[in-house]
Design goal:
about 450 residues, alpha+beta, 10 helices, 21 strands
Amino acid sequence: MTEDIQRMDLITPVEKATRLLSQKDLDFYEAFASHSRSVRVTILGKGIKDTGSSVDLGMGVRAYRDKGLGTAYSQSLDPADVERTVATATAYARVAQPDPFFKGIPAAPKAPDVRFLFDQEVTDLGIESVSGFAKEMMDAVRDVRPGPMCEGGVSVGSTSSYLMTSTGVSVEDERTVLSGSISATYRQGEDIGSSSEFEYGVSLADVDFGWVGKRAGQKAVEQFGSRRVGSAVLPMILVPEAASSVFFGLMMAISGEQVVKGRTFASGLLGKRIAPDWMEVCDDGRIAGAVSSATYDGEGVPTKMVSVVTAGILSTFLHNSYSAGIAGVETNGHAQRAGYGVYVGAGPTNVVVKAGQSSLDEMIVETKKGVLVTSADFTPSPVTGEFSSTIDEGFLVENGEKRHAVKNLMAGGHILDLCRNTDMMSKEGRTFGKGHFFPSMRISTIRFSGD
C-alpha cells in the first residue's frame, strides 16, 4: 500500500454520472464512487498463517422517478461503464413500483470537518510492516507464558469516496483504519486457559500491538481453574467489553427503516423509560480521530451528537432520510453506506455511555454473590429483544471478592431487563476506536443456567 490514496480520481466519473442522470427526466438521483485498499495478516497456531491485500473500486447509482427506485453499480469507472450504470439505473427507475414511504433525498448544508480521520502512514504500510505488528502481538503472548496457541490477525485499510446528488450534495471523504486482535490459549496439564484482546484506531499511534498481546495472555492465564456454577438468579457485573454488546444491541434496534415500520422490539419505546433515571447514552459522530466519526453521513448530511437515552428515557431513533420521512421528522445524520453498493441503511456512530459514581472494585465489593462477566455477547434478537448468551469468560463473586473462573454457564432474558435492572455504573471505563465509551455496569438480577 505505497500508492497515495488521493491519486485515484473519483470526482470525474461521478460528475459524468450525475451529468448524464440530469438528462434523464428523473425526480432525484445520486452517484457514489469509492476506492478502498487493505492489507491483512492472519495468525494461527504458533505463527502467521497467511497474508494478503485487496483493492476494491466501483460506483453505485440510485435514480428515482415517480417514487420508484432504480439502482445499479459497476466495479469499473471507465466512461463506457459509467454510461451503462446510469442507463441501467434509469431504466429500472422507470418501471419500479412507487414507494409510498419515499419523501426524497436530503439537501445538506456544509459542516465543519471532523479532523484526524486519515493517516498517510497507514496507507503506506505493506505486508512486511503489518506482519511485524502480528509478530509483536505473538511475542507478547509468549512473554506472558511459553507455548501458547494463537489465533487472530492485523489489518490496515484506507478508503476514499465521493458522493454527488441532484439536491446539491457534493461530499468527498477519506479515512484509514487499522486493527489488531489475538486470542491466546495455554495448557496446564488437563486445564486450559484462553482469552482474547483487540484494539483498533485511525492512526498508528492508536494501536499498541504489544499491549494487545500481553493483555490476551494475562487474561488467558486468569481462566485457569474454571469451575461450574449451578443455575441461579444472581447479580451480574459486566466489564466494558461485555457491556458494549448491550448498548450496541439497543442502538441497532432503534435504527432506520425497521424500527419506524414496527419491525423491532424497540418500535414502541420512543418517549418511554427503558433504564434508571440516571442513565444517559448519546451518539456522537463528530469525535475527532475516532474510527466511527465522519463529517457527513452516508447521504451527505452533517453528523452530530444526539441524545439517545436521556434520564433513562428513549429520546430518539437513529435516522437516515428514508426512515425520517416515514416517521415525519428530520434525518439526524445516521445514514450508513457500505462501499459503492446501492443500499443505504441507518445505524450508530460513536456510542458514549455516561460514567457512573462507582468503581468496578466497589461493584464487586458490594456484591454478596454474583457473576463478573469479562467476555460475552448479549446482542438480542432485533424482533423480540430476547437474548441467550454463553458466558465465554467470567468469575464467580462471593462475599465481595472475585473467586474463580466459571465455565458452562449461560445467561438469558430480555435486553430491556438488562437496562432497567442496572443499579450501578462505573466511573471508569474503556474507549474503543477513540470514540465509543462504555463503563462497567451491574445488573441487579439475571437468570443463569449452569450445570
